[in-house]
Structure formats: C-alpha cells, structure tokens
Amino acid sequence: MSNLYHNDLLAPYLALDQGEKVQAEYVWIDGDGGLRSKTTTVSKKVTDIGQLRTWDFDGSSTNQAPGNDSDVYLRPAAIFKDPFRGGDNILVLAETYNNDGTPNRTNYRHHTAKVMEQAKEHVPWFGLEQEYTLFDADGSPYGWPKGGFPGPQGPYYCGAGTGKVFARDLIEAHYRACLYSGINISGINAEVMPSQWEFQVGPCEGISMGDHLWMARYLLVRIAEQWGVKVSFHPKPLAGEWNGAGCHTNYSTKEMREAGGIKAIESAIEKLAKRHEEHIAVYGDDNDLRLTGRHETGHIGSFSSGVANRGASIRIPRHVASQGYGYLEDRRPASNIDPYRVTGIIVETTLLNQ
C-alpha cells in the first residue's frame, strides 16, 4: 500500500490565499497511547485558546468509548503553530472528556495539571530525552540491509557519514518543525543502535512538559509519514545485542537549582527509592525488556543511584555533584511513556508525599 506524499502537487494548493479563515488541527491521545487528529475551520486568527470550541469525535473508533455511547469531547489545552500548513494555521493539543464532563480514562493530563498546580511554588522543571527507532514501511529497520544486519554497535552514536547515520534529512525536518511550532526542543542526536535517534525537549515547567513532548511526537510521526517511514517508541524494538529506547527524565525544583541544592536532590532520591514499584508501574509498557541491567540500564527489580552512573536508576551528573546544585536524571522511564503520568508521579513523590 503506497503512502508516498506528492509534495510537488500539493505545494501550489498550500500557497493559495485562505482569506481570514484558519485551519485548526485538533490533536489528542487515543486509547492505545497513539495520536489522532482532525481539522476544523475557525473564522479568524486565533489569539487566545478561549476562541476555540469544544469538539467531539467517535471514541468507539479510538478505543476510548463503547459504541452505544461513543461521543468523546475535545477541550483545547495548548496551541502550537502549524508547520505543515503555515500562516496563521494552528495545531491544538486537546484533552479528552466523557459526555458527563469527567475526564476520559486516557486523559492523564487532567490529574497532572492539578498536581503541578499544588507544587507550583517549587517551580518544577523537566527535560525529557525521547529516544525512538525508525522502520521502513515493510517493518524492517530503516537503512538496515534487507534480510541482514549492520555492523555491531559502536560507530552510530552521534555518528557522521554514510553507513553510520540513517534518515538525517527526516530528523532535521522534525527539528526545524519543532522550532517553528514553538516546541521547546533543545537538541537531537543519533543513538547507539543504527536508525535509533533521540530528541530532547525542555526545560519545561510543570504541565507544559507533557504538552511539548506530545506535540513533538505528533510532528515526528506526521513528518515520517511524508517520508514513508514508521516511528517506533517501543522500549526494545529489536531483540539481541541492540540498545533499547528510553525517555530519560531530568528533573529539578527551585530548591535543587539554588546553592546547596544537592541536599534537596538527595532528599528527592530517598523518596523516589521508597516508591520504586509505583513508578515502574507508570514508566512504560514492556519496560522489563529494556531495564535488564545491561545496555546502560539498571535492573527493573531494584533501585539504585550514583554520580555519573548510567547503569543506575537515578543518575546525578558529575558537574551537579561538583558544584553542589542542579538536577537529577531518572533513567528508568521507557520511550513509550505518557509524560503526564511520569512528571506527575515524580512531583507527587518528591514534593507532595510527606
């Protein structure tokens, strides 16, 4: 089944004047942790989220509602510029609600927004390192020899040159699209396994971390769609001696970032240790395939921490330990996490559970 774009044919139509009307692409998280979207026309340029209407969709087709009561409602939560249509057109990240006004079971943003409001005096910052793997439309790893394997891991991490990196054009397109849209993307790099990449988003305060990461993921899968490439967020997409994919979560509070903040960091780590199992429960599906104690991971069954230790659950960067303040890195979250759940439970554990 062909999925190739005809950008040359599309271009003259995107250049047509659309008058004062604006296209708003509503984006939401479906019942399987994937992303869906649909478009509505708005009468004029949107300058405030309050101008946007609550919309609805068929939740029985997205695993979010039964067929006999299928309406699920989209409430706008965040606005980004649309890099696909340009102009005043926008992308709208929306929360999902049932017809009785309660948040849909897949809407983790609702609870996390309350958590972040309770903890706002501590000014929690996050930076997420999103790893992912690219596959051809036929399901084989992108750029790998058909029916075979590339050379062993080693030359691919932050690599340069033919045979060492794959799909750099797609990755550069995604980076620029994020910058245009207003996503706080802070960097990219090729990862240890060939055709595996990472982008970083942050620092973002509170609930905005989840908003920015979800929209960055949406842009990635949309752009990859144009390349005819599939994106996998599975934490262990290939068995064997290949690295898995994570979403390392960097976290700090106002107290951690101030002089002497290492005490607040150590206190947070002590609290995280006591709730290891509760965190693992929301740190991504199939994470046991990744957290084996090998390939730069700690074992899923135990909690550990250390300075500059990439095999620990929690890593304190060397420069943070030296200067005595900064942030910690939780290396447990998998690449397929819901960032609202992860950032929410970290704040609950370290700031709200006394």
From TrEMBL:
GO molecular function, one term: glutamine synthetase activity
Enzyme class, UniProt record, top EC level: ligase
EC code: 6.3.1.2
Keywords tagged on the record: ATP-binding, Cytoplasm, Ligase, Nucleotide-binding
Occurrences of domain GS beta-grasp (ranges): 22-101
Pfam families found in the cross-reference section: Gln-synt_C, Gln-synt_N
Cellular component, GO, one term: cytoplasm
Sequence ranges assigned to domain GS catalytic in this UniProt record: 108-354
SUPFAM superfamilies noted in UniProt: Glutamine synthetase, N-terminal domain (SSF54368), Glutamine synthetase/guanido kinase (SSF55931)
Keyword Ligase on entry: yes
Catalytic activity: L-glutamate + NH4(+) + ATP = L-glutamine + ADP + phosphate + H(+)
Entry-linked SMART domains: Gln-synt_C
PANTHER family: GLUTAMINE SYNTHETASE (PTHR20852), GLUTAMINE SYNTHETASE 2 CYTOPLASMIC (PTHR20852:SF57)
Family: Belongs to the glutamine synthetase family.
Subunit text: Homooctamer.
Identification of the protein by name: Glutamine synthetase
Species of origin: Crepidotus variabilis
